[in-house]
Amino acid sequence: MLHRPLPLRASLLLAALVFTTPAWSADPLHKETVELTAGKSAHSVKGKIKGYATAEYTLSGKAGQTLSVKLKTNQPSNYFNIRQPGQDEALFIGSTSGNTYQAKLPADGEYTVQVYLMRNAARRNAVASYSLEMRLRP
């Protein structure tokens, strides 16, 4: 059996398929730092996420301050988690606790509010339009 080399176009196409990363493997991430101070203790943001995309809002807080976060969304599988500095486990998990959080912060540091879609919606490439309100009080 005689093997013929692939035509140039076919070779280039094959190389492109083999050496490129599929678009679905990259999870888009929106990151934003939120400045909450005595003069501006609240911050609201409107956003949109699709599929496996997430949005992260980072804010600085001190132990004993009260952090309030409220998510309003048009997508029932849209939630947020709160991560605290130096901890592996989330401080708050929205999918089990709902879309409202209010509690005193346990430590000084950078806290991250991550907005995401549950896997059932992310797999379908669903879109969520949301508004997120974050408030920090002494």
Structural account:
By secondary structure, the chain is an alpha+beta fold. Helix content is 15%, strand content 46%. The chain has 3 helices and 9 strands, in the order αββββββαββαβ. The chain has helices at 8-19, 94-97, 119-123, and strands at residues 29-34, 42-50, 54-61, 66-73, 78-83, 92-93, 100-104, 109-117, 127-137. The protein is globular and about 40 Å long. 20% of the residues are buried. Residues 11-26 have low confidence and may be disordered.
Question: What's the structural blueprint in terms of helices and strands?
Answer:
Elements: H1 8-19, E1 29-34, E2 42-50, E3 54-61, E4 66-73, E5 78-83, E6 92-93, H2 94-97, E7 100-104, E8 109-117, H3 119-123, E9 127-137
Parallel strand pairs: 1-3
Antiparallel strand pairs: 2-9, 3-8, 4-7, 4-9, 5-6, 5-8
Feature tags:
138 residues; alpha+beta; five-stranded mixed β-sheet; four-stranded antiparallel β-sheet; 3 helices; 15% helix; 46% strand; globular
Précis, in short:
The protein has 138 residues and is of the alpha+beta class.
**What's the gyration radius in Å?**
21 Å
Q: What percent of residues are in strands?
A: over 45%
Note the gap between the termini: 80 Å
- Helical amount: 10-25%
Number of strands: 9
Structural class estimated from helices and strands: alpha+beta
Put simply, the count of helices is: 3
